[in-house]
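Thread: zinc ion complex, take 2
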Amino acid sequence: MDKEKIEIIGDNHIGFSVDTPMVAGAFDKTDDQKITAIQHHFGKIMEELGLDLTDDSLSGTPYRFAKMYVKELFYGLNPSNKPKLSVFENKYGYNKLLVEQNITIDSSCEHHFLPITGHAHIGYVPKEKVIGLSKINRLVDYYAHRPQVQERLSMQLLKDLQNILDTEDVIVMITTKHLCVSSRGIKDKDSFTTTLEYGGCFKNDRKREEFLGILQHVAL
Ligand SMILES: [Zn+2]
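Output below.
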């Protein structure tokens, strides 16, 4: 891909598929094998930048960096880390809107590998199944901990929750700040980005307004 096209895709934050693009055999190596390989390569990047890796302050950075990538920032790439999402029978027959709001988003943009931070707000109208509230937070945390495009993150959460809850009646709103917009390029410190994905009853304007009305009472 030529360099101009690379810049355009990054600045427009274009993503190409709902599934995170992964190669076959992405998890053939263990986490420890990946950490060892990334440690080596990141050390080379630091050397290319002219940094002295024999300095006491810098010598541990390639290992810290590699461990942070595999075990923390991008743990959500590995399906074996997906949280167990047990659902329960909706015994009390609750069939109105339920909103879990201000769920922390700690993610990274896949075009620049810089932080995306903010909140997700998720609503659903239960049918036969309900889910433990903290499970929604765990699912957001899992999908956020990948190199991401915000639009894809919203769609992955919507589709997964629709499957788990066995209903189309789910809405996902995400509001974030992207460091690649605030700290490089245009360097806009104040703008933020909102995405809204929904299905089922939320295609109805009034149902969507009910959800958005609840969110108006919280700091985004
Ligand atoms: Zn970016």
